[in-house]
Design goal:
This protein is mainly alpha-helical and 244 residues long. It is 50% helix and 11% strand. It has a three-stranded antiparallel sheet with strand order 2-1-3. Strands 4-5 form a two-stranded antiparallel sheet. The chain has a two-stranded antiparallel ribbon with strand order 6-7. Strand 6 (109-111) and strand 7 (120-122) form a beta hairpin. The relative contact order is 0.05.
Length: 244
């Protein structure tokens, strides 16, 4: 739907009106036949029709294009009243800037920010409403730290709230201790497995060294036996030499 033509100041060119809703174009699109429509209006029309509502020429969504630049400029320069005029806003601004103004308008009706409150209030009066809203929250004046709604004042019990808070803290502490315990056990188990693997590797290395030492001792004994044999042969040769 377009902008209500009654909101505009002065004359509005016929070419800037939607051919379907007859209000001033909002987010406009143009057909090849140059008739212009609000985006929402023409999309809704094409769900049930396949032609232009003005001249009945065949059109398709894929054929729709943005408004000509000069028409877009003319549209943006139109002056209109804020939609909150009925609440007291007297602002008149261009169509190009109306959305920005209305997002910040002090006369806009906005919901109360307190959970549970259904009141719609003008933005300029929001702070005053929040100060007296029955759903506003505040800390207990007795110092227990509990945040309560005004409606709960008569039912609030500091001792009960502190006891509940203590139980929650105790439960949280128990959970954290259990988590730390499990994490420590997991680390110890991991270290234990690592030590067992290391011990196995060292044991294998020791066995290998023992095997190497055994082979070396065997080689040494073989060398010593060979040396004795060689010495005996030399002594025998010496004796034979003397006899000769």
């Amino acid at each position: 739907m377009g902008y209500d033509i009654e909101r505009f100041v002065g004359y509005v060119n016929e070419g800037l009106l939607c051919s379907i809703c007859r209000d001033v174009l909002e987010d406009p699109l143009q057909a090849p036949c140059e008739h212009a429509f609000c985006t929402a209006c023409i999309h809704g029309w094409l769900v049930h029709h396949s032609n232009c509502p003005e001249d009945r020429q065949v059109i398709d969504v894929s054929l729709l294009r943005p408004l000509y630049r000069y028409m877009k400029n003319d549209l943006n320069r139109l002056q209109l009243h804020c939609r909150n005029r009925e609440y007291g806003c007297e602002m008149v601004c261009s169509l190009e800037s109306i959305d920005r103004h209305e997002r910040e308008c002090e006369y806009s009706q906005i919901p109360c920010s307190n959970a549970g409150c259904t009141v719609q209030i003008e933005r300029r009066n929001l702070d005053g409403h929040l100060a007296v809203c029955e759903y506003r929250s505040r800390e207990c004046p007795n110092g227990c730290g509990y945040t309560m709604l005004s409606a709960e004042d008569t039912q609030h019990n500091c001792v009960a709230e502190l006891r509940t808070e203590l139980e929650l803290l105790r439960s949280e502490m128990i959970c954290r201790v259990e988590e730390a315990k499990h994490e420590m056990e997991s680390r110890l188990d991991s270290q234990r497995r690592h030590m067992v693997q290391k011990e196995s590797i060292l044991q294998n290395e020791i066995e290998e060294l023992k095997s190497q030492m055994s082979r070396m001792m065997s080689d040494v004994r073989s060398l010593m036996a060979a040396e004795r044999q060689h010495r005996q042969e030399l002594e025998q040769a010496e004796l034979e030499k003397r006899e000769l």
